[in-house]
Design a protein that fits this description.
heterodimer; A: hypothetical protein PF0899 fold; three-stranded mixed sheet; three-stranded antiparallel sheet; 2 helices; B: 282 residues; Rossmann fold; nine-stranded mixed sheet; 10 strands; 20% strand; globular
């Protein structure tokens, strides 16, 4: 739901870093978007199109990495890919699972000149 | 920046009002016009220079062009950093901060009123109220005699760490106190925003449907306790309490349940005991 404000935050982080490193152009911004981060990938992509207008990122490429979720079962330690918060352990069927990956929403890096 | 539409304004779009006996003291105030004309989103074709990447992890720089600067910062880091500052403040003063979340009308304010009036708690209670508009909730709390501030978010749909930071500066809570934060009634957005609280309590009422946790998983995932309110209405409803709990546990098996009626006081002791136990363990 807050993809637009998140897009603005991403732009801010990338811009600040570029400035701090005396970069003239930002070629690419790399972002990790977890499948279970609460952010819709396509909505974020769309929001970024708007968020970069009038900024130094206006012509930058965005590399959005879709991070698949990963969970571990607390009962049998099986490691698997859950579909959603309702998933049960693929091995023993327990619902006591912990999501260990897939909640990220992180600006990883920028590529600059 | 306004978190809903992203417009820029000087004071981040919210107001803090300290409720005093006949005066409203205004904290950071602002008067900005949200010109919600987002038509620029739609007036031009999207050339799509960016294409979808469907791969799991990453790569390195393409060819020899440019230099790579690693960042590794959460997109919500600004809020998260402020939340940690709040957390530090609370820890330093041994304050317990509780974030009360729910959909509108689940009974958060009534629960708070009853908690304050129960007089079982020896600790000093202070309240931060969050709503888009009005001081209605803060006025109700003010009647109970405890210090309260009202945050009006304007267009905003959730409280964030900066608002809480501004609010407790107005309140200046003493050491060993209990700070209750009543978030904006909304089961979607507040889930994503760490306020720096010690505990997050989600309240769902029996008039809401057993599948609420399945529909709003992020909120239930990020909460510690689930209060089921309005149990006095159960005889009039087809509500299956066990089904609600089973659904909530599927989303978050750590959840602790407290069933009560803020109206009649039934089950309220369990909630008060929980608060007392948290006060003692700090």
């Amino acid at each position: 739901m807050h993809e637009f404000s998140i897009a603005l935050n991403i732009v801010e982080i990338a811009t600040e870093t570029a400035r701090a490193n005396h970069a003239e152009t930002v070629n690419e911004v790399e972002v990790d978007v977890g499948d279970m981060s609460g952010v819709i990938y396509e909505a974020l992509e769309f929001a970024l199109h708007s968020a970069i207008k009038g900024t130094i990122l206006e012509n930058s490429r965005f590399k959005l990495n879709r991070i698949k979720a990963r969970a571990v079962c607390l009962d049998c330690q099986h490691d698997f890919e859950p579909e959603d918060f309702l998933s049960v352990c693929a091995n023993c069927g327990s619902s006591k699972i912990e999501i260990i990956r897939g909640k990220e929403m992180k600006v990883k890096s920028i590529n600059v000149d | 920046m306004c978190d809903t539409c992203g417009c820029n304004d000087n004071n981040n779009g919210f107001t803090i009002l300290k409720i005093q006996n006949d005066e409203h003291h205004h904290g950071p105030n602002h008067d900005h016009n949200h010109d919600h004309d987002h038509s620029h989103h739609h007036n031009h074709p999207h050339p799509h220079p960016h294409h979808l990447h469907e791969h799991e992890h990453v790569h390195q720089d393409q060819g020899s062009q440019g230099r790579l600067i690693e960042i590794e910062k959460d997109a919500l880091q600004k809020n998260n950093l402020m939340a940690e500052r709040n957390r530090g403040y609370f820890e330093a003063r041994n304050i317990i901060a509780i974030n009360l979340v729910s959909s509108p009308g689940s009974g958060k304010t009534t629960l708070l009123e009853k908690t304050i009036l129960s007089r079982n708690l020896k600790t000093k209670i202070l309240v931060i109220e969050g709503d888009q508009q009005t001081t209605n909730d803060a006025d109700r709390i003010h009647t109970t005699g405890v210090p309260v501030v009202q945050i009006n978010t304007g267009n905003g749909c959730h409280l964030d760490a900066l608002m809480i930071n501004s609010a407790y500066r107005e309140l200046n809570p003493p050491e060993n106190s209990l700070l209750m934060i009543e978030n904006v009634g909304n089961l979607v957005c507040p889930a994503m925003f760490d306020l720096g609280e010690n505990y997050r309590v989600v309240i769902v009422s029996v008039t809401e449907g057993e599948d609420k946790p399945l529909k709003y998983p992020y909120m239930f995932q990020t909460s510690n306790v689930c209060i089921v309110n309005k149990t006095d209405l159960l005889p009039h409803l087809d509500f299956e309490l066990d089904q609600l709990k089973a659904n909530a546990l599927k989303i978050n098996h750590h959840l602790e349940f407290i069933e009560l009626s803020a109206k009649t006081g039934d089950g309220f002791d369990k909630w008060l005991d929980w608060l007392v136990s948290k006060s003692k363990s700090h």
